[in-house]
């Protein structure tokens, strides 16, 4: 059973089918495939990874309209891939997984859903890292009488034109939302907790001859994809290997501020105090220009409370507001889905993480949870290039594990705790020198223990080498009974 049909779940389903494994089911709470690209339909939504790198390697898309794709095109691409590879009939849409328990006596999982109960030999958690919106716990927020919604649950029936609007947050979603709505609202208050570096985006439409060449010149698109991949891997130097080299990028960011923001006070507010890369770098050619508008105010004082029709900051200022957009990100290391999986010893993923820290083996398996895979699990994320590269690497590992288990007639596997601890001890010295730890910021990369449990601290091709085959020697296994 695969939980979720975003990039991870859909890709896993396709690869299982291609390897001849057809007795699987994908449970998806939405009405279609697409995951985060189905749910995030806010104004200006798009990808900050180049289009040619943001697709499955086995299903390149020569029809991208721009060098950085808008949300609707990515969603359409994923739907077309599902149709092309014929996996829709293996999906159960509009179905939410509510609980999963490992039954040791049976060597299987029991899975409860809103559409009935199931048993499964293997479970793949592909719920996604950008799936559960983070709604801030602000005093009085539930008493607000105007429109209020999270960026990932955009209310398209709510008209913001001519109204006083507040956007809380200045992360990846906000830098796309703010320029999209600023020209139409009466006033826009943007609440910033921490300034983040914003880089230029080399975004342009593809010309008709280019799209023709992508479609008809053999190998052209793969060559461009490879060049983009190599260029993106260079960011590992500034973030992991030699963080001081990020000073060059910081200079670019400072020049961009000076060119695009006239107001010296706003310019001072948006200047980050941390090293570039410590938080996720943002890319936008419009965000600073939107902040510089006369009807836009950048608020850096903390929010004290939300009232029926206003927001009050810690300095006592009260600002009237008709609508609030929560661009406050997602639960990543503390995903609510971790409370739904109960392992061999009766603990959930969350309970195990509370006791031992959020650790996994190669970002895919964890002790106490036999026959279970986590897509984009601990320390397998990237913040500089396409996550699809990591996703496909993990898919290879999952599919190889399933086929290996079947070939050897094995019932269950569970990663050895010693192997898990040794693997994470090897990550520690690499992580210690990264800008994510030394750069002087806090970010969603960090869990509640202050550890960076989100990102992979090395080149992505090294991660792919690490999971190229299922290393069964790192696992305790049991044979199937006759």
From TrEMBL:
SUPFAM superfamilies named in the record: FAD/NAD(P)-binding domain (SSF51905)
Single annotated GO MF: monooxygenase activity
Alphabetical list of Pfam families matching this protein: Pyr_redox_3 (PF13738)
Keyword Transcription regulation annotated: no
Keywords of this entry: Monooxygenase, Oxidoreductase
Keyword Ribonucleoprotein: no
Ranges in coiled-coil conformation: none
InterPro entries: FAD-bind_Monooxygenase_sf (IPR051209), FAD/NAD-bd_sf (IPR036188)
Gene3D superfamilies: FAD/NAD(P)-binding domain
Protein name: Baeyer-Villiger monooxygenase
